[in-house]
Each structure stands twice: as structure tokens, then as C-alpha cells.
Amino acid sequence: MNTKNNKRFRDMDKKLKATMLELLETTDFEKITVKSICETAHVNRSTFYAHYSDVYEIMEQMEEHLNEELLESYTGSPQEKDSVFPMWPFIPFLRHIKKHACFYRTALKQRRDFPLKQGYEPMWNQIIKPKCIAAGITSESEMLYYFVYFQAGFTMVLRRWVDTGCHESEEVVARIIENCIPAIWNTIQ
């Protein structure tokens, strides 16, 4: 019986995702097919279709998995937070993006919004909202405009970073991002 709780099913799911990541390192996403995934993983197409309906679904589920991994990374130690504050909220995010750069290179190509559906909470709660409140902005509606602006810029900075091979350190990119939000930072400083 093939269910998501079955260990063999879960192991095959991991294998298919690993194969997808392997292919993303050498092949443009648009050229990856179910057939190429199956051939590389040495599995039948029926096995793939027991898990996913197409290559878009596997990417979507990989993004959800990586999102969970990212959220877990925000449990950094207080020493780490103090050592790079106020950049600290960016550092775990950037480390995560760098670790999975081949996936995000593809995921960010067509993005205009934040790369992870739930990955924004730490940045909203630890950066945008406190900075807006400190600047005297109390309307959450107005804060959301700052955040939308921040999301678009942040996403494009990430895209450039992964497109150029993540050569700059996470700290350098965090500083660049921090300096890119002068409307909030300059009001407070």
C-alpha cells in the first residue's frame, strides 16, 4: 500500500526530490521532464506519478519543504543575534538560500514576490513592523506598503545573488539589503 506514511513512499519521495535538485544543477528547469527525472532516478514513470502530477508540483512541494527548513533556522542563539544585529534576521535566510542556490536560481527566475510563502514572518515581525512603529507609523495598512516594497527589492537582490553564484558573503548581502530600505532606516536613525 503506497501511502505518504509508508517509509518506502517517503524514501522514494526524497529520492525524486534529490534527483530534481541534481538535474537543476545542470539543466534549465524548462528542459526537465518527467522522463528525465525517471531516467536519472532509475524509476518508472508510474512511480513518479504516484508522488507528483508533473514537474511543477515537485518544485512546489520542494519549496514547501525548504520553507519549513528555513523557518526552523530562525532559532539562532542570542549571541548570533547580538553579533550581527540588526542584520540578524537576514543571515539565516541568506544561509538557507545559499545552501539551496540551485533550487532558488530556478525558483526566483520568474518571481516578483517573496520567494517563500511563509518565510516573511521573521522579517515582518523583527524588521519592518518594529522599524515602522519606531518611525511613528502605526497603521498596519501603511506598514504593508513598506513591506511590499521591501519584498520586491529583497527578492530581486536574492535573484542577483544566486544568479552570480552567491560569491558575496551572507553578511555582505545582509548589509546591502539593510541599506536598500532607507525609507524606514533613515527615518529612525
Automatic annotation (TrEMBL):
Domain named HTH tetR-type: residues: 10-70
DNA-binding keyword on record: yes
Record keywords, A-Z: DNA-binding
Domain of life (superkingdom): Bacteria
DNA-binding region per UniProt: 33-52
GO molecular function: DNA binding
Stated name of the protein: TetR family transcriptional regulator
Protein species of origin: Faecalicatena orotica
